[in-house]
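Quick one, tokens below. Sequence please?
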């Protein structure tokens, strides 16, 4: 009986620890030639969407994007927490819309990346509204760093939605 109780406690601990998972994607590059840093955002969105489906019912929380300089190169890190939830709160699809900009003046970089991200978000939501319901902007993140005499700014909107 003690062994069975011990096994039950171990199983409950495992299940409780699985109520949250984290998705983290990071890429380091000397520049953004060929939009190579953008690929990580798409990989991140795909993995978060897959995890939402895998752990359904679940929702996305604490989404962030960080832009830093590591060892003299740009480093871009995306992270999100996926939490078990009720079916009523659940989200099923996940995507992002954003812009990365490098300019000599910080205000120009912020303006450019924000405007591009807002346009992408608006256009994307217009398309989503035809096929999906419960569209939510779960997070808007802006981060910036000075790198090679320019200000680099990333602005990202993270969006969830469900089938109609």
């Amino acid at each position: 009986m003690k062994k069975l109780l011990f096994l039950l406690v171990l199983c409950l601990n495992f299940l409780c620890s699985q109520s949250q998972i984290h998705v983290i994607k990071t890429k380091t590059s000397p520049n953004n030639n060929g939009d190579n840093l953008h690929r990580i955002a798409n990989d991140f969105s795909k993995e978060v969407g897959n995890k939402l489906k895998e752990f359904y019912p679940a929702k996305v929380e604490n989404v962030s994007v960080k832009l830093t300089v590591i060892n003299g190169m740009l480093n871009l890190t995306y992270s999100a927490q996926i939490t078990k939830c009720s079916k009523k709160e659940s989200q099923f699809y996940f995507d992002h819309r954003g812009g990365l900009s490098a300019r000599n003046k910080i205000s120009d970089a912020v303006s450019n990346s924000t405007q591009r991200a807002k346009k992408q978000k608006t256009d994307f939501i217009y398309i989503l509204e035809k096929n999906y319901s419960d569209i939510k902007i779960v997070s808007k993140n802006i981060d910036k760093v000075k790198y090679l005499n320019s200000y680099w700014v990333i602005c990202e909107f993270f969006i969830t939605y469900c089938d109609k």
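The first strand starts at residue 20 and ends at 29. Residues 1-17 have pLDDT under 50 and may be disordered.
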